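User:
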Amino acid sequence: MPPAKKRPRAYDHLRTRTAVLAQYAHVRDAVAALTPQQLASPTRLGDWTVRDLVAHIALGLGSVSRDLALPEPPGPKPATTLLQWPPAVAAVVRDPGAPAPAADRPDLFALYGEVEAAFLADVPASGTGDRLLPTRVGSMRLTDYLVTRTVELVVHTDDLNEALGLEIPYDRQALAACTRLLADTLADRAPGGSVEVRVPPFAVVQCIGGPKHTRGTPPNVVETSPLTWIRLATGRTEWARALEEAEVSASGERADLAALLPLLR
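Assistant: Predicted structure:
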């Protein structure tokens, strides 16, 4: 019998909305200070420049207003749940031959202001977040989609920091939501209780089939920091490299996540 899956984690709509706005503001403030030379710099995202990445971040949040402007999908339940989002979005990654995100938006700071104003108008600081959105990977609850925006914002903030040597801060709640969604995705993809994955202070999950740990110190433990976990889950770093550089500790014969990573392929 396959291991029983736990009930999906619940996210507070207003806290998630606040986290999205806070992380977006951190990026917006950094964008305002970027020079033309910095905007032309390369990133670790293939042929994208920093300008392309910055535009992509704004357009990613702008998708909330865009989708809210469309008719609500029929049905009481979403077609795509939060834990289905990572594999779904991985299947519709950008086309390498598509136009760069910044191609038709030369004034990036104006773009950031437009997106933020629209978000504030379209996602009020009230409500339950149960409204369904017709996203590109299927209908999703508004609250769930906002959680995915924390993933986009945190991951791409790290991309910007890496590209330019910046120290754009991470909103604690945005970092927590991103970390937890990716940890829960691992547990959902490889259900079981033989390995405990710890990402303090935000997440602890058990995964991988085998002897289940019930008490005392687990025999198979993986532990890492939130940013390292996010980089592993999104393919920004490799499992072997993280182990070699002591960014991950892994004890026990089953504590090897290499075959499961990255989660966003």
